[in-house]
UniProtKB/TrEMBL annotation, chain A:
Family, similarity comment: Belongs to the adaptor complexes small subunit family.
GO molecular function ontology, one term from the record: clathrin adaptor activity
Keywords from the UniProt entry: Coated pit, Cytoplasmic vesicle, Golgi apparatus, Membrane, Protein transport, Transport
Assembly information from the UniProt record: Adaptor protein complex 1 (AP-1) is a heterotetramer composed of two large adaptins (gamma-type subunit AP1G1 and beta-type subunit AP1B1), a medium adaptin (mu-type subunit AP1M1 or AP1M2) and a small adaptin (sigma-type subunit AP1S1 or AP1S2 or AP1S3).
Gene: AP1S3
Compartment(s) of residence: Cytoplasmic vesicle membrane; Golgi apparatus; Membrane, Clathrin-coated pit
Protein name, entry field: AP complex subunit sigma
Membrane topology: Peripheral membrane protein
GO cellular component term, pick one: AP-1 adaptor complex
UniProt key word Chloroplast: no
AP complex mu/sigma subunit domain sequence ranges: 4-142
Automatic annotation (TrEMBL), chain B:
Protein name according to UniProt: AP-1 complex subunit gamma
PANTHER family linked to this entry: ADAPTIN, ALPHA/GAMMA/EPSILON
Keyword annotations: Coated pit, Cytoplasm, Cytoplasmic vesicle, Golgi apparatus, Membrane, Protein transport, Transport
InterPro entries the record matches: Adaptor_Complx_Large_Subunit, AP1_complex_gsu, ARM-like, ARM-type_fold, Clathrin/coatomer_adapt-like_N, Clathrin_a/b/g-adaptin_app_Ig, Clathrin_app_Ig-like_sf, GAE_dom
Gene3D superfamilies: 2.60.40.1230, Leucine-rich Repeat Variant
Location relative to the cell: Cytoplasm, Perinuclear region; Cytoplasmic vesicle, Clathrin-coated vesicle membrane; Golgi apparatus; Membrane, Coated pit
Single GO cellular component term: perinuclear region of cytoplasm
Biological role stated in the UniProt entry: Subunit of clathrin-associated adaptor protein complex 1 that plays a role in protein sorting in the late-Golgi/trans-Golgi network (TGN) and/or endosomes. The AP complexes mediate both the recruitment of clathrin to membranes and the recognition of sorting signals within the cytosolic tails of transmembrane cargo molecules.
Homology family: Belongs to the adaptor complexes large subunit family.
Ranges of residues in domain GAE: 630-745
Main location, first listed in the record: cytoplasm
Membrane topology: Peripheral membrane protein
Source organism of the structure: Strigops habroptila (Kakapo)
Record GO biological process: intracellular protein transport; vesicle-mediated transport
Amino acid sequence: MWKIHFILLFSRQGKLRLQKWYTTLPDKEKKKIIREIVQIILSRNQKTSSFVDWKDLKLVYKRYASLYFCCAIEDQDNELLTLEVVHRYVELLDRYFGNVCELDIIFNFEKAYFILDEFIIGGEVQETSKRSAVKAIEDSDMLQETVEEYMNKPAF
Amino acid sequence: IVPSVLRELIRTIRTARTQAEEREMIQKECAAIRSSFREEDNTYRCRNVAKLLYMHMLGYPAHFGQLECLKLIASQKFTDKRIGYLGAMLLLDERQDVHLLMTNCIKNDLNHSTQYVQGLALCTLGCMGSSEMCRDLAGEVEKLLKTSNSYLRKKAALCAVHVIRKVPELMEMFLPATKNLLNEKNHGVLHTSVVLLTEMCERSPDMLAHFRKLVPQLVRILKNLIMSGYSPEHDVSGISDPFLQVRILRLLRILGRNDDDSSEAMNDILAQVATNTETSKNVGNAILYETVLTIMDIKSESGLRVLAINILGRFLLNNDKNIRYVALTSLLKTVQTDHNAVQRHRSTIVDCLKDLDVSIKRRAMELSFALVNGNNVRGMMKELLYFLDSCEPEFKADCASGIFLAAEKYAPSKRWHIDTIMRVLTTAGSYVRDDAVPNLIQLITNSVEMHAYTVQRLYKAILGDYSQQPLVQVASWCIGEYGDLLVSGQCEEEEPIQVTEDEVLDILESVLISNMSASVTRGYALTAIMKLSTRFTCTVNRIKKVVSIYGSSIDVELQQRAVEYNALFKKYDHMRPALLERMPTLEREKGVHLIFRRVHVWGKVNTLYDVENYLQILEINGFHAVLFSTGIPSITAYNKNGLKIDFTFERSNTNPSVTVITIQASNSTELDMTDFVFQAAVPKTFQLQLLSPSSSVIPAFNSGTITQVIKVLNPQKQQLRMRIKLTYNHKGSAMQDLAEVNNFPPQSWQ
């Protein structure tokens, strides 16, 4: 099997901004894992690779501005491609929000999830076209009945 | 009161200056949300659940919102559904019964008129659907897998993958829908179809065989991707849809494995990708990496394999750490099958031992051990010993074990071997694994000509520092065994040191007293001291004193040993030399250590107390005590008028129906028995072969024995019985006796 087990986004202070789990785990266990992984990654220095052996999985992580993006993949998965997956997600966020920054993710976290769900399902990539994924979100936004809560362009 | 909007809440919470302040805000908001839920208000449910999800992300409990998510999912409003499904994915999973309430809603939404609602349902099912949900909804997913709407088709494909993972028996039902999946032009559908096909092929050899026919089509699709011009939709740094390329390469790998025809059909495209892919960016290397893995796994031509290994070799020299990391990982996978090709990159690999990244170091270490052979062992061991010295503690145990193994296999000389062991013990002596100690002891025992050198080096090593337990254990054992060589200065390999018996006992006693010494180590030291009682000449009284002191040690293990050793001094002094004599060289057979020369000593040690004593000594020396070389108990077949005949047994390794019996005849009277003839008869179903006896005279006073070998063939595995006839001359008379032997142990014939 090759699949992503979970995706975490967190700040340089270790604050969680997004958590997507593609395996079933108790809440307590998830919290423990997050604490552990945040600590491992925040303590890595510049001179190390983007990959960490963790339990029977591999963590692939990359920092974009003030946010760390971390993907847990299976041991035999392609780490270099996973870096591309992470990068693609960042590009999708950027295309949707326009010059995305951490505050966008904080104030519009539900959108960050919607975008992720148009890109990945069950730990596997579902769409490889940047345009299609973002268009689906924008079309869905149009379907929303109440505009003031979920405006297309975020206001905070 | 109108509940606050989500953004308002987020802004408010972010103004909190302390954890306590934040907690207070959250509690206030949760209380408001709870009462709003109680009012069953439809208008603001969505807003409230969204706020709850935000608070959940901060780490606060949100389970009271689970049912509300279900209500949102059931709502007709798209806004509600969107948040409802998100909430379900974040707050619910298959372990809560309430999740099953979703099933009906999902079923309805899978058939909704709006594709974005269908999409939400498919996504949720594909991410968190339980086995029960999957069973209930598999049919709907299968329907959508056949739709012409590519937006839904791609999601249905991944949903199907999830269903198969949860309920593998359902895989068959998706087979018809896969028929023309690869004919699609839409990349999303293509990608997810390849994922689905991959999943099916991995789970079922029949599916794998069935889908092999897709190889030409997959090759074509891959070729089109590579040859096609710039496509803005799918382009990544000049490469068209790398995600799809990699997934196709992976499926090709699975289809080409162990199949000559398929492997041949993909040979050209693999060579093309391997040579034409742009390597300046990560994306190109990601594809090359997958290509290499595929080439190595299928039945590729040797030229292609060399190409792949060379790509890995170039990866090793890349400045990008990530590339070096995957190179090492891949080389580790191929080092067994393409050993010579990987050897060519040995020096680069060894350089990676000095990398700052822990994962790279670990892989470089594993790969280095895999590359050690008879030709490079000296150079490689030098590098690995240096690595052992400087690496992080988490590596030391594995590295030490690896060095021991490699040294055992490829040591160019016994001296080098001992020196290498010494180096490991002194460098990383506290990280060496427990099982290394008995192995090293056996090694040292069998290196007969190095005994004096070894004991001298070990003595010097612990003189300054006796804190590293495995080192101290090996050293103690060695000193106990070869202490006589130490004090007589017999070392030839290097300048022999001058050391007295008292000095040697000093160091062993220091180990005994030190609170750094583990209980096991103390046992080694005490036994060593005891053994020296038969090797030293001037200090036996000192040894007796030490042993008697520890007879009242609080440490039960030590106490027991000391008491037994005391007994050895007092009651069994005649046995002490034999029991404590030098260990013979040992053979290792099937993991059990066999001891040969001891068997005759065992004959003289016949009380249970003595057996335990003997076992203790063996166990302290790190051996599993197997006293008999065969394991079958001996019997006394005959014992009359001073003539005693014992039978010992061995089973043939090659023929399970053959038992080999060795008889030993002894004479306890004051006169010799001469012209001794032993005859035996067995029941009809057996066959007997009597070999020549050692002599025909049994000397008096048990001072010698006659031995003779009998081979018994027992094809029907019947209970062994024997009639024996004995004739001999004794005290001037001719003696004759007949007897039945019925007490054969079951292991001798079963």
